[in-house]
Amino acid sequence: MLDQRVDAVPYSVPDPTRQLRPSNVSEPSSSTPSVGDRSTIGKSLVIKGEITGSESLHIEGTVEGSVSLPDDRVTVGRNGRVSANIAAREIVVLGEVVGSCEASDHFDIRSKGSLCGDIVVSRISVEDGAFLTGSIDIRRESPIEAVEEEQVEFSHVN
């Protein structure tokens, strides 16, 4: 057996001007969710009813009813099974959706995803291999809303 000598590391005095924060201490949280907050419905969960809120949602389980998250993203994961109408800013489908979808910004159905229902959206992406049955209504911003938005921007410049 080898006899090894380990030199002790010299003791250092902590710098009082340097503040350390333990890694398990979190920042104070506010009552409103921050950008990037996301809830997940796990694959063993079954939700029946109405889902509303103000954060993004990732669904791997089963949802029946309605999902309304108008300012956020709804993702139906590969294991997700949704029988509901979905209204969100952005909708991504990797699993199965039966119901209508209304996305104020973007609707994305991936190669293994399926949708049986109508879509109302301003932008849409459909990957090869995706299954889609229903109507697609692509809506643009009305000219009146665009002019009003430009007028608001100009009024803030002055």
Number of helices: 1
What average pLDDT do the residues reach?
79
Helix share bin: under 10%
Which structural class matches the secondary elements? mainly beta
Characterize the main sheet: 11 strands, parallel
Shape descriptor = globular
The stretches of 5 or more residues where confidence is low (pLDDT under 50) are 16-35
Helix-strand pattern, N to C? EEEEEEEEEEEH
Number of strands: 11
Proportion of residues in extended strands: over 45%
Rg, alpha carbons: 25 Å
- Give the termini distance in whole angstroms: 83 Å
Structure description:
The protein has 158 residues and is mostly beta strands. The chain has a domain of 107 residues. The chain is 9% helix and 46% strand. Strands 1, 2, 3, 4, 5, 6, 7, 8, 9, 10 and 11 form an eleven-stranded parallel beta sheet that branches. The radius of gyration is 25 Å and the shape is globular. 20% of the residues are buried.
What are the defining features of this structure?
mainly beta, about 160 residues, 11-stranded parallel β-sheet
Short note summarizing the structure:
It is built from one helix and eleven strands. It is mainly β and 158 residues long.
Write the layout of secondary structure elements.
Layout: E1 38-41, E2 46-52, E3 56-59, E4 62-76, E5 81-93, E6 96-98, E7 101-109, E8 114-116, E9 119-126, E10 131-133, E11 136-138, H1 143-157
Parallel strand pairs: 1-3, 2-4, 3-4, 4-5, 5-6, 5-7, 6-8, 7-9, 8-10, 9-11
